[in-house]
């Protein structure tokens, strides 16, 4: 698997975790990203001795459970390398996107 394929697979596995709202590039001098020709994969950094995944967590899940979810999802992809999980931020309920776009509520609509 190429580095690009691996970074994309790790990102997809992490985002698929129920306790993960999104990936995070982090901040400061040490961004968490994999730099590829023409693009980067934010939230995933593949190093020779470890893999770092930085996430934004959903509210209400213990941090240790979030880290465990991400590790279990990513470890099968990285052939025994340690997986470090960085909880970069917390998504508050008011920051979550609505489940459905705003539209008519259906109230007063005639049934056929």
Secondary structure layout plus pairing:
Layout: H1 3-15, E1 20-23, E2 33-36, E3 39-42, E4 44-46, E5 51-58, H2 63-74, E6 83-91
Parallel strand pairs: 5-6
Antiparallel strand pairs: 1-5, 2-3, 4-5
Extract low-pLDDT stretches.
none
Tell me the structural class. Answer: alpha+beta
* Average pLDDT over all residues: 86
Q: What is the ordering of alpha helices and beta strands?
A: HEEEEEHE
Helical amount: 10-25%
Biggest sheet layout: 4 strands, mixed
Q: Determine Rg (CA atoms, Å).
A: 18 Å
- Termini separation: 54 Å
Strand content: 25-35%
Quickly count the helices.
2
Q: Count the strands?
A: 6
Global morphology: globular
Description:
By secondary structure, the protein is of the alpha+beta class. The chain has helices spanning 3-15, 63-74; strands at residues 20-23, 33-36, 39-42, 44-46, 51-58, 83-91. The strands form two sheets. Strands 1, 4, 5 and 6 form a four-stranded mixed beta sheet that branches. It is globular.
List the defining traits of the structure above.
22% helix; alpha+beta; 112 residues; four-stranded mixed sheet; two-stranded antiparallel sheet
What's this model, at a glance?
This protein has 112 residues and is α+β, with helices and mostly antiparallel strands. The chain has two helices and six strands, in the order αβββββαβ. 22% of the residues lie in helices and 29% in strands.
